[in-house]
Amino acid sequence: MCNMTFEEASGENSAERMESVATALEEVLSSALPQGCITVGVYEAAKSLNADPDNVVLCLLATDEEHGEDVALQIHFTLIQAFCCENDINILRVSNMRRLAEILGGGKPGGEPMDLHCVLVTSPQSSLWKDPALSKVNRFCRDSRCLDQWVPVINLPDR
């Protein structure tokens, strides 16, 4: 069910709303990381989605100018998006991969960069995760679907 005000549907205050959702997304990632609830990389994400899709609460697909036209990556994205839609997993496209890397801690041990093109946030096994920031991001995804934006784009602002 879509319960949006006219202002939300018409795009008024959209810059403020996008910034608010970007901040909430940063909070979600920052709180999920120390709990071990982040899966990074297209291949690792595909394995995790196949093994336990019910545990995934959010899927982020990220690109930068360098990889924006990569056909193989776009095919991976299409398949991941289809799987997420089939399993009711919220999806966001994220711009500013440099900021995403900062939030997630940069790179792998040994200085090798992480594959940040796909990032999954999973729910901790120990308890039901009631995070207000995650609720805000999920609400944004739901509202975007009501406007036929199945994969909304969020720009993570530089800090």
Topology summary:
Elements: H1 6-10, H2 14-32, E1 38-40, H3 42-51, E2 56-62, H4 71-86, E3 91-95, H5 97-103, E4 118-122, H6 132-146, E5 153-155
Parallel strand pairs: 2-3, 3-5
Antiparallel strand pairs: 1-4, 2-4
Tell me about this structure.
The protein is of the alpha/beta class and 159 residues long. It is 45% helix and 14% strand. The protein has six helices and five strands. The protein has a five-stranded mixed β-sheet with strand order 1-4-2-3-5, with helices on both faces. Helix 4 links the parallel strand 2 and strand 3. Helix 2 packs across helix 6. The radius of gyration is 15 Å and the shape is globular. The mean pLDDT is 84.
Number of helices: 6
Question: What is the overall pLDDT average?
Answer: 84
Rg (CA only): 15 Å
Low-confidence stretches: none
User: Could you tell me the number of beta strands?
Assistant: 5
Put the structure in a nutshell.
This protein has 159 residues and is an alpha/beta fold.
